[in-house]
Amino acid sequence: MSESEATKFLTGDVSVQGEVKTYFERIEEKKHLNAYVTLMHDEALQRAKDSDERRKKNKALPLDGLPIAVKDNFCTAGVLTTAGSKILGNFVPTYESFVTQKLLDAGAVFLGKTNMDEFGMGSSTEKSMHGPTINPNVRSDGTQVVPGGSSGGSAAAVAADLAVAAIGTDTGGSLRQPAAFCGVVGFKPSYGHCSRWGVIAYGSSLDQPGTITKSVADAAILLDVMIARDPKDSTSIDYEGPSLQSALNAGSKKFTVGIPEELAGLVSSQYLEYVWDRAKELCGKANIEIKPVSLPHIRYALPAYYIIALSEASSNLARYDGMRYGYSDQGANNLIERYERSRSAGFGEEVRRRILLGTYSLSSGYYDEYYLRATKVRRKIKEDFDAALQHVDAMIWPTAPTTAFAFGLDATDPLTMYLEDVFTVPINLAGVPAASIPIGVYDDGLPVGLQVVGARHRDADVIGIAHKIEKVADYVRPCTIG
User: Fold this and answer.
1) Which residues of 280-315 are buried (b: 16+ CB within 10 A; e: fewer)?
2) What kind of fold does domain 1-482 have according to CATH?
3) What are the residue numbers of the active site?
4) Span 136-168, pLDDT tens digits
5) What is the rounded CA–CA span in Å between residue 210 and residue 189?
6) Of 50, 326, 335, 338, which sits most exposed with the smallest number of CB within 10 A?
């Protein structure tokens, strides 16, 4: 899986129009996966035609003709954008998000918009107005499992060969966890490297666009285009590091990775023992040195994350009031009733739950006790990451505490679902880059994901280490893929 499919496509003698038509045929064949919610046939075929013409004239762009899937919370000019929610109604943006515009300018072809948990709030892509997405991988006993979330549609599309690559967003693991569940690569850049302008917000201080690909090399190719300063996004920064593709040629460079001592006792299971053992084995094969490091406050990351994320969600989603745009209940008798009825019917159960919890955390009398305290914990966590990463090039640990689980967990036990994020949310709180790479197949026949976590702005180190581990892992997708 370490071979770059994007490179083969971009340098090969292919008919982009023919390839795009083949992808649409495959999407139709596998529509039961519900990976896509809106297809862009006409736009894609026109862009494919333009790409073929540029290729013939030897004027190809960096991503010319590359078929890409786009998560449905990126605003796409002239294309329905729902964020998986009824509240947006028939929202068709008149503008393009910064990230998608960068990809289009580089010649990419968008096949369509992919399914997601409503507003990114979920870990299974079951909480969508479009219905759940199905993981292309099947448990060895035949059980269908979730693709993870919230970028489950993007991960399923890449894993099922319905796109060469996909983009999504990561607020608390929404790229890395579905990548792990589907057996592909998920990369979350450092906070501020990819502009959030034109991305429908969940938690503004946590959200970050990134990639889902079949290899680390493909992630580097896309991110070298996506990472750029955007004057429209005040959190966007100038990246002054090396190109991520150059990090793929680390060769004999000696890397050192840290294993946080606190994580081993945070969650324990037979599955996690397998992941730790496998990770150490692969580091040995890749000539990567392992050192113990400490993240003393990481045990508080999950509650701090949910307080901060839900508080920001409460603020961000206040704009959807049923008055200016989106779904509006016309049966209300007064303004307040219209607000209440529109939001009650327009938002799903999980989004309503998170809005209520976030509003409570920000309310008078509880702000200091919850939100302010959570921000102080966040600062401590960031300091822990900074200190640990002074002594190593990156850290490694499992992406998720389990392999992909069966459908229905979210409905029966939402708290257990929140615990699925225990290994991913600390990274968003610290604002550092991380990649999830597939390193094997567990006893249940499902893919296993490992995270490589780097220091902020050292995304190239994450690429280099992840690429070295990926090569020795020699991951082969399960034969049960659908």
Assistant:
1) eebbeebebeeeebebebbebbbebbbbbbbbbbbb
2) Amidase signature (AS) enzymes (3.90.1300)
3) 71, 150, 174
4) 999 999 999 999 999 999 999 999 999 999 999
5) 6
6) 335
